[in-house]
Write a structure and sequence with these properties.
204 residues; mainly alpha; 9 helices; 59% helix
């Protein structure tokens, strides 16, 4: 989900749908969100149409659903609630942060992602499945494991749920508050120590 544009790797996800279909695994790939305004102004819906054409050419048009609109938090939550697994097939190898990745992980759902730095950091301990960029076969294999092995999927859900709370905004705010209090306290202590030192020098 999020704003659609090149680099999101959606085409590899579509290719993975064909591989799952060939293996007799039924799945539906939901791509939610409008085209990025800058992309739309420069090339219209060319990327989205290329994805539709790709799905048709591979025989999985009925397995790929586009929600071409902005989703508010309630609507997005409804889409995510219905999902069995969340997939981020990004092309980037250098992305150090991803809001969508955080949003995906805090749902407590299994997450499959390509190996960009933020994903490796959050999912590398088994919380999610990591796949090389532009590797449709790897995506298909990871999806098959989650969709057919309930114990594996449950392990991923448990790990994600264990991490989720510290990424929710109330927890983040609490961490910032504790950090600021510690810095103020430390600063006050050091100031007090300096004043004591000055007083001792004055006495001597």
């Amino acid at each position: 989900w999020g704003l659609l544009g090149r680099g999101k790797g959606i085409e590899w996800g579509i290719d993975a749908m064909r591989m799952l279909q060939d293996d007799g695994i039924s799945a539906r790939y939901v791509i939610a969100g409008q085209t990025h305004p800058k992309v739309k102004s420069s090339e219209g819906e060319a990327y989205r149409e290329s994805l539709r054409n790709r799905a048709t050419a591979l025989g999985v048009a009925d397995k790929v659903e586009f929600i071409d609109s902005y989703l508010d938090s309630h609507s997005l939550a409804s889409v995510i609630k219905e999902a069995t697994v969340l997939m981020l097939p990004y092309d980037s190898r250098d992305q150090v942060t991803s809001g969508v990745l955080i949003e995906a992980m805090v749902t407590g759902k299994p997450v499959i992602s390509t190996r960009f730095p933020h994903a490796v950091e959050l999912l590398g301990d088994g919380t999610g499945e990591l796949v090389d960029q532009a590797d449709a076969s790897g995506l298909a294999q990871a999806l098959a494991r989650v969709l057919t092995d309930e114990a594996h999927a449950e392990s991923m859900r448990t790990l994600a749920q264990g991490k989720a709370e510290r990424f929710l905004w109330p927890s983040v705010a609490r961490d910032y508050l504790l950090l600021s209090e510690a810095l103020v306290s430390d600063s006050g202590l050091r100031m007090s120590q300096r004043l004591v030192g000055v007083a001792e020098l004055a006495v001597s």
